[in-house]
Amino acid sequence: MKNEISNNRMTDPTLTVLKADGTPLGNQEVVIGQTQHKFLFGTAAFDLVPLTNGGYEGEKQEQAEQRAAKLTALFNAATLPFYWARFEPQRGKPLIEETKHAAQWCRERGLTVKGHPLCWHTLTADWLLSMSSPEILQAQIARIKRDVSAFRGLIDMWDVINEAVIMPIFDQRSSPVDKYDNGITRLCKATGRINLIKALFEATRAENPSATLLINDFDVSPAYDILVEGCLEAGIKIDVIGIQSHMHQGYWGVEKTLKILDQFTRFNLPIHFTETTLVSGHLMSPEIIDLNDYQVDEWPTTPEGEDRQAEEAILHYKTLFAHPLVEGITWWDMSDGGWLNAPAGLIRKDGSSKPAYEELVKLVKGEWWTSPTKFSTNGQGEIQFNGCFGDYELFYQGKRKPFSLRRENAPAVQICL
Amino acid sequence: MKNEISNNRMTDPTLTVLKADGTPLGNQEVVIGQTQHKFLFGTAAFDLVPLTNGGYEGEKQEQAEQRAAKLTALFNAATLPFYWARFEPQRGKPLIEETKHAAQWCRERGLTVKGHPLCWHTLTADWLLSMSSPEILQAQIARIKRDVSAFRGLIDMWDVINEAVIMPIFDQRSSPVDKYDNGITRLCKATGRINLIKALFEATRAENPSATLLINDFDVSPAYDILVEGCLEAGIKIDVIGIQSHMHQGYWGVEKTLKILDQFTRFNLPIHFTETTLVSGHLMSPEIIDLNDYQVDEWPTTPEGEDRQAEEAILHYKTLFAHPLVEGITWWDMSDGGWLNAPAGLIRKDGSSKPAYEELVKLVKGEWWTSPTKFSTNGQGEIQFNGCFGDYELFYQGKRKPFSLRRENAPAVQICL
Asked: Which of A288, A297, B280, B401 shows the smallest number of beta carbons within 10 Å?
């Protein structure tokens, strides 16, 4: 894995430092430090919406600020919620301003923001149910146009469709928890998956041509692989294949993870692991098919569970970071007690960090990161550098020069003071 | 179910019998009998290749003839084998003549013949393994052109591709039985499923434009539904969706069968149940994923198993015959001891009929069939008729007039003596 990380994520260019007059800065000491990863290390940051809109008070506010500080200390990407049922519970009154505050907060702190999701059968607007399929489609497209355009520049990355594999059959699945009839399942049944995806991608693209558009699914069977192939053959421009990995029933392990990656590798498209969960308590039993069917009042984090979670997190992140096509990993719940009340956070309910948080910091801001470090140029002003793709800054006698390491500019980078 | 069968499979036209001079044959007695079902009731008739090529002798020959007689007594369709490994074990020496004898035998007895399959990763030619992917594709297309053109007029129905859902990942599946590397999996991995299917359908169509072309799969999950959608969106003209139903692990039941049918109904394409198996012995255990992994020396038929098989066969055939889009059902093994050595036949190893055979005869050539029956015309030469779609003959004073009942010509049919 170390070799693959080195080959796929790191670069060793010759940096040439030039003085303002264009001559080499020979035999001088400079300091270089990293400011940003190109790789997206993200988390679901739903907490930021109340935080940035006066939703917390007193101690709660303080705790939320501490969680946010831990978020920005580790991550450079955030997923913000656009679940239609919550974003626009009353038709015509979307939470655009509230969500903008959270997005702005992220952008000010250098986080790339993704909106999640534009279309999904779960948590969709109840008021679609009174409409015909063409009306639902019209409302869905109008919603996309409004929101994608409102957030252009703040949010330039979208999960356009979520869980399309089961979308048209969602209401039929047998499950202890009642599968509800909903407008999006009805729509998808009427249009077919590919036609719907095409319409959604085209609408999103039209409102924000430079945005990064994802298809996202929890299904990692051939069904999803075939759906992606069908979409691409139908001419749909998918920028990134999004793969969920909610491992409440246990860590997949390296072999399964690589096998899944293998299945999508032939498309030669970037892959994001969009929703990663590893719990630090007991595992959900394996026979449960829809994770939402597991409803518990208490799901405690345990010391052994936290050690396991940390080990698995390290392995999962290393496996994915090593793969040439993976360009982002989103850890789903920052804190315990989120989705399914699971101990799926990097932070406990009391705000303290779990071992998994510390271990990810050690990787993302340690092993894979260049802290400010002294370098000496040679007579030609050159430095042999080695670091992950990302943004950097060079300091020399109080001057600060930012530069970027990208696959495109390797093997030589000029930095002019 | 009775209502659906009546609505979807039967017609009640007014037959008007005219004399040679065009005037009505008033108040006369005629006899009408059915000669053919429009619905395809088929079976895998691999046995016919040795039978029609001197492959049997003495008692064996007699037994094979008895089996063949039972076949034609019940069925009007036959699937003949084109497994590449067996059809052309040595490159350039295909069994065209031998297979033609079997196809001719079928056609002479009014059976519709389907060739199975033109492309499949299992039982494919070993000699593909020395080729590059473009060469494999070229060989596969050449094979299609040669065989489809050689059998044009004899075989006008083809399983163009078999089991494409797992085709590109077949060699990776974990299983006690070694999954072998093969040329078709390699090819499908290189081209993608949809591109390959497109090339195969186009080649087949070019050689026999009026043929009925099927995609066929055992996968009945959303993966297959999505693959069909992807193919159709990519402009591939699929004539019939083929669904296997090898129920060695137990009868699906009506509910599951209808749910699967539901999944494919939105395409509004004809559906064939291409490979139906119900065993009359113990069931294969449910945890086996690839049925081929179950290898036994003995798998006896039992009296209780035969009763169960008969009941399930009735229910399965009624369920499918009632569905408006299903146009054919193929019972896989005519006799016991075929695939997997299973008691999956309608006939025991000793050639005697099982209850399932008798029950299917009662349906196909009884309840759903019009045996020669007397009718009296009214003064206008009219008969109120009711029967399944298919071919009929009317007898009057030694004259025989064939006519057909099709959805297109209902509600009125003229028969001129």
From this structure: A297
Does the pLDDT value for residue B176 go beyond 50? no
Summarised one tens digit per residue, pLDDT across range B14-41 is 999 999 999 999 999 999 999 999 999 9
Of A172, A193, A233, the CB nearest to B259: A172
Cα–Cα distance measured from residue B102 to residue B88, given in angstroms and rounded to the nearest whole number = 17
State the average pLDDT over residues A275-287: 95
Yes or no: say if A187 and A125 are a contact pair by the CB < 8 Å rule: no
Q: Is the pLDDT of residue B408 over 90?
A: no
What is the nearest CA distance from A131 to chain B, expressed in angstroms?
20
Chain A touched by B165 (CB under 8 Å): yes
Tell me how crowded residue B303 is: count the other CB atoms within 10 A of its CB: 10
Q: CA distances (Å), B313 to each of A72, B77, B349, B359, in order?
A: 64, 18, 19, 8
Average pLDDT over residues B40-59: 96
From the candidates B163, B233, B263, which should be mutated to test the interface with A, based on the most A CB atoms within 10 A?
B233
Question: Residue A109: CB partners within 8 Å, gap ≥ 6?
Answer: A72
As beta bridge partners, residue B12 has none
pLDDT of A176 reads 46
d(CA A382, CA A386): 13
Output the pLDDT for position A2: 84
This complex has an ipTM of 0.87
CA distance B141 to chain A (A): 21
Contact B172 A234 (CB under 8 A): no
Nearest residue, CB atoms, B222 vs list A223, A234, A262: A223
CB B222 to CB A259 under 8 A? Answer: no
Cα distance from B407 to chain A (closest Cα, Å)? 27
Chain B: closest CA distance from residue A233 (Å): 6
The pLDDT of residue B165 is above 90: yes
Q: What is the pTM of this model?
A: 0.91
With a CB-CB cutoff of 8 Å, which residues 199-228 of chain B face chain A?
219, 221-223, 226-227
Q: Which of A172, A189, A226 has its CB closest to that of B226? A: A226
- A171, pLDDT greater than 80: no
Model confidence at A277: pLDDT above 60? yes
Alpha-carbon distance values, B413 to B27, B47, B60, B381 (Å): 18, 40, 47, 12
Q: What confidence score (pLDDT) does residue B395 get?
A: 97
Span B102-114, average pLDDT:
98
H or E stretch covering A355 = helix A355-362
Rounded-to-integer distance, Cα B289 and Cα B291, Å:
6
In sign, the C-alpha dihedral spanning A306, A308, A314, A319 is negative
* DSSP class of A366: I
What does the alpha-carbon distance between residue B252 and residue B258 come to, in Å, rounded to a whole number?
A: 10
Chain A CB contacts of B233 under 8 Å are: 192, 194-195, 230, 233-234
| Phi, psi angles (nearest 5°) of residue B34 | -85, 145
